[in-house]
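Hi there. Long-time user, first ticket. I'm pasting a complex I've been working with (about 844 residues overall). I'd like to know whether the download I got is complete or cut off, because the file seemed smaller than I expected. Thanks.
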Amino acid sequence: MKYNRTELAENIGYSSVIDEKFKTSFLTVRFITVLEKETAAANALGISALSSSSKKYDSIAKLNEKLSALYGASLVSFTRKRGDIQILGMSSSWINSRFAIDGEDLDGEMLEIINGCIFDPNAEGCEFEADSFRITKKDLLDRIDAELNNKRGYAISRASEVAFKGEPAENSCYGTKETAEAVSSKDAFAAYKRLLETAQIEIYYISSEENERIPEMFRRAFADVKRAPVKIEFEAKSPVKAEPAEVSDEFDVNQCKMVMNFKSDCTDKYALKYVSTIFGETPVSKLFVNVREKLSLCYYCACRPVTSKGTLMVDSGVEKDNIEKARTEILAQLDEICNGNITDDEIQSAVLSFENALSQIGDTPSSYEAYYFDRFCYGEIMSPAEQLAEYKAVTKERIIEAAKSLKLDSVYLMLNKEAE
Amino acid sequence: MEKNILTSKRTGDSCIHVKHSSGLDIYICEMPGFSSVEALFGTKYGSVNTMFKMRDDKEYTVVPEGIAHFLEHKLFENEDCDVFELYAKTGANGNAFTSFDKTCYLFNCSANYQESLKILLDFVQKPYFTQATVDKEQGIIGQEIKMTNDNPEWRVFFNMLRCMYHEHPVKIDIAGTVESIAKIDADLLYKCYYTFYNLNNMVLSIAGNIKADEVLAICDECLRPCEDKGLETVFPDEPDTVVEPEIYEIQPVGAPIFHIGYKCRPCSGQERLKKSMAASLAVSLITDASTDMYKKLLDDGVINSSFGGEVFVGDGYFSVIFSGESASPEIIRDSIKKEAERLINEGINEKDFQRIKKSAYGMSIRELNNVEVVANLMINAHMEGAGPYDSIEVLSEMTSQDVLDFIRSEFDPDKLVMSVVKGE
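Hi, the file is complete. Here it is re-exported in full:
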């Protein structure tokens, strides 16, 4: 495997990962910007519009027809949140040309399509083409509506709003229904242009062999863009509230949800990851073994770190009658870690889980991309083996210190109406 | 022990199939350059297997709904400790799942795979149930059932199956109901275990950074030979008709969702493989973004990018399902009917067919590039009575006429049902 990152222009990175075992090529372009309530929906629409058509393939039907003829090549846009930043982009993958039955130059065809979608979009003047944009906008509005369909995901989103109130991270990466509805084709096009000019841009190419045509294509295309990049802060610890906040919603559901947000000002991210893992990330974690298995208080009870905000979220599916007991037990399990009641087996199990996860990086193109993007955000480019060494250097004392820095910030409850 | 190397003529990929002396079928795919290992140890026992007997039994045994899933949960506990504790010492991620027609225990890891494989083979062959642990599990699974009842995707799918099937147990929830699992006891679990967890009814599939000789040596060490007792599963007679054409459920959802499905005639073995491929290509033709139907539905705001389809197949059931989000699923149902009618009357455009076929071929190439997918592909193919690379061969030989024949014989408008979950 060979990894290399170069700067094509100011704040435009091009990373290639060459690994000969792959039968496919994978290209992702990420636009990174500050997450703001006012611009989130317009940004999401500006980038989504790019993957639905281009000047050459000027409808969803035509673009899809072309992609399916290229052996089902994929081209999708995405919008994500990482703490206070919004990450938007386009991701594409296609099989290597050596598998093409009719000898097509799949790399060349796909580069032409991607180049067209990003730099020659389906627009007239300063607006995206009306029909395609209307469909793209409906898709976003439906996606916002559909958030409630996944109750666990919805509870986590609501818990983020409560935890990060007043900070960019409180916002959804899709914007609100109201802000999305207000975005015109012109607004979305302006957002797209703004992102081209001001976003931090990271491009990833993962394939079995180098392809110099790709960096060259982006270098040439960006030469025509008047860049004025805005500096991005990838980490912004969230201040803990003086008193834990509690917010609840009621729905006609069978199972209640509880999300507890803990915050820390600790800068030792490796030790915090140990805390999260030992606390509730695995089937041998304290929350799984005690809260779920021994006490049967929750069907699921798991911990996830939001590292860029110095936050751990514990989310659980719980019956109304057990909410208080579950809350008390979750806090008691955190106290166990703070008091040093961590066994060597728990630490060793955490090390093995890090080792397992890090060793598997590279088995899929997307795992390479996610890993190296994460390293970029942290400003520390290192190999998975080097990162594992960082984990292995963490002592029990560091884990205890990190755990002690966690304070309960807020609780979100999704309650069922009947249980009231 | 019979050992065969299976190779795909199209891609050059290969794997090893072994019929082990213990009775177990073993599939091994060494994947050079990959770091991870994915292993599945599965039995052909799922939620639909509620009635069975052995060769020497006179009567069929009927068991409560949800027992296969219950057994899966309980097998994770052995007499001394929880299986997760054992995996925690090797670093592997252990898990399991029960579907309609199989139960699989699996792990993935990047180191110590031999130790993890020993754990997998050992605990699945060593049941330990007591009434106390069964009683406790009833509470945990009861919570799981409640949670899935809050999942609109789950509800819309099972409601559709209930519209489609009169008798076949595919219509029952995989986890059963709070009432049905209350009938489960330790003796019943042992009975099901010794019936279905016979190695002659099981498969081991392992792919990734492994060596076949090492895997087979562990199998020789850990597998306990089983006598083939002639397991026979039966299903109630299923009428050809549907139960009811549509069902609506109110749930707290933001976006209404639908499943629209054709009830098709079930089949098995190679016929199932060919028919599934024809059905899959038919779905792709109908959900293809370049069709007039798709364009109109999209332009009119009836569908969004969530619109898609799948083929749902198993022992005694076969259906083709279209799904997505929409406030007007009735329009989609009518459009699908009309599109099927148009294809039947006008035939399939050969250019469109070749394009769709190419797309399916590209998907097969991608699948062979992923350790987890390869391990699943091998076990799924075996349980469907096929080889791991048979589908890519069947695809290469598929013609537009095959697909048209499938649509003509199976897309019967009288066997089309619709399930909708929407908000108040």
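A couple of notes from our side: The radius of gyration of chain A is 23 Å. Chain A touches chain B through 67 residues (CB under 8 Å).
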